[in-house]
Amino acid sequence: MSLPDFSCFPFLETLSLRNTNVVSPFPKSFVHLSSLSILDLGFNQLNGSQPLFEITKLVSLKTLYLSHNNLSGPFPHTIGQLSDLNELRLSSNKLNSTINETHLSNLSELKYFDVNQNSLSFNLSSNWVPPFKLETLLASSCTLGPKFPAWLKYQRGITYLNISNCGISDSFPKWFGNLSSSLTYLDISHNKLNGPLPKSLQSLNVNYDDIWVWDFSFNNLNGSVPPFPKLYALFLSNNMFTGSLSSFCTSSSQNLIHLDLSSNMLVGPLPDCWEKFQSLRVLNLAENNFSGKVPKSLGALGQIESLHLNNNNFSGEIPSLILCQKLKLIDVGDNNLQGSLPMWLGHHLHQLIVLRLRANKFQGSIPTSMCNLSLLQILDLSQNNITGGIPQCFSHIVALSNLKSPRFIFHYESVTVSDDKGWYEIGIDSYYEIGYINDKEILTLKGYSREYETNLGYWTTIDLSCNHLTGEIPQSITKLVALAGLNLSWNNLTGFIPSNIGHMERLESLDFSRNHISGRMPTSFSNLTFLSYMDLSFNNLEGKIPLCTQLQSFGPSTYAGNNRLCGPPLINLCPDDVISPNRSYDKTVTSEDEDKLITFGFYVSLGLGFLIGFWGVCGTLVIKTSWRHAYFKFFKNINEWIHVTLEVFVNRLKKRFQVED
């Protein structure tokens, strides 16, 4: 909608039209709202540069909210006219110019500055002293680098600071640790910061009740992990931190909810002090060089929901986690763990959705207690030494056998903050998350491995490949109608492919290769219309490949090593398709006999028949005038009869409708 005429409201002080589909341009009367101090036009369809330019004429503004529109063009120089401006929120637009000192030099009252998710570039000199004292700066995805913005050292009252993905490729300045002790949210991720973290960070005097979230992930930071003040969430992943965590137990961050130290170069055994972190919900220590046994104290984390210990050098057995009954994801893959698969998994962890134990040294059979994990969507036991058969009871896993089973979104929030600064006057409650995590996992599907994050909770897979499983593929596995990926390759399975495999219509990836499976391919394969990857190679299959678009779309390598298989796409034909020499000769003779029927006399007869038939009718009309007149008179009478009949019928209908009226 367009903005109405405001000429009748010259003394209007507050205007909120958030999420009402407001579009540009503004009416001329809008600039006459000289008393307006709070303006909220967020979540609308404002576009171009005109709206922001016109708004800067409202010199009494103190709070301006234009986030989540389509504003584009430069950051207006006239913004300096708003000398009373306290809050400026322009996030999630398409502004694309440079911000320099002339834009900001008159904004002495500015406390809240939000330009997140724009293409703005800050060009401020290193010795510039801002006239304002910010409490919040949100400038994610803008350009502040390559040097660390020196003007921030004057913002000692800042509470929220987000300068992630800002092209900063510098080290932390010495003054950084002198920022306000009220710095409750700090996000400097996705830059190229190098060197160690400032040691002065640990000396900040933090109020116990403050909400603290710090994110230094995806940089080039190095050195040891320093002690931190009381934090709720700490993200240090994808850096180059080294050393051990031996001093971690002395850290004062025992209120941690999220801890992510993944993808670094940390070494040594883990400290056995995790019972101190009773609030911990997400622990990610993956892709380091940790060694030794997994600490037993991890089993005391009663609130833990996601545990990543994968891609390390842990050895020994998995300690008991029966007290961690809120666990939804366990990943201890790619280690040197051994022993039997834990029986307690299925007896106590009933909320488990993802279980990844791949690439270890587990042995023994798959315990039937795993069938009690009714919410299990992803099971990866590949590359171990597991023996025995595939449990018949896998069909009891509800999440894999029921298409209507709810799916879980792996989103963990750290803290939900109420943002009522300036908005309580207009009755708007704003909430947003800080320190949240979207969990991710590496899955091997369709022949290759990739990382899944936002859609992780929608996948349903079983991977038992590269073990020593024996026996037949149970017929009951075809009841897993919600399964998208099934990999049983590189085992010692025998018997036939289940005849009802076509019931698994949601399958997208199927791998039975490198086993001893025999018999024919079931015709129900034709029901697997979503199948985009299949490998049945190197088995003992025989007979004709069922004819359907899906199966013939795969290359010959899908069926390689099954010497008795035949039919497309393989070049070897089935016995029923081979044409014998005698049948070929008979067809040739028949074809020659049929050709003998078409002789010169045939063409002469065809021409005479056409001449007699055509001129026998048309010739008489041309030669005999009386016949010609009679012929056309007949068609004229037919035409007049049809016309009169229609006229009478229409008149009767009209009279009938008149009588009814």
TrEMBL record:
Origin: domain of life: Eukaryota
Transmembrane segments: 600-623
Record's bilayer topology term: Single-pass type I membrane protein
This protein's UniProt keywords: Cell membrane, Glycoprotein, Kinase, Leucine-rich repeat, Membrane, Receptor, Repeat, Signal, Transferase, Transmembrane, Transmembrane helix
Localization, UniProt: Cell membrane
InterPro entries: Leu-rich_rpt, Leu-rich_rpt_typical-subtyp, LRR_dom_sf, LRR_R13L4/SHOC2-like, RLP23-like
Any single GO CC term annotated in Swiss-Prot or TrEMBL for this entry: plasma membrane
Alphabetized SUPFAM superfamilies for the sequence: L domain-like
GO molecular function: kinase activity
Principal subcellular localization: membrane
All residue ranges annotated as the Disease resistance R13L4/SHOC-2-like LRR domain in the record: 11-179
Family: Belongs to the RLP family.
Protein name: Leucine-rich receptor-like kinase family protein, putative
Native source species: Medicago truncatula
Gene symbol of the encoding locus: 25480213
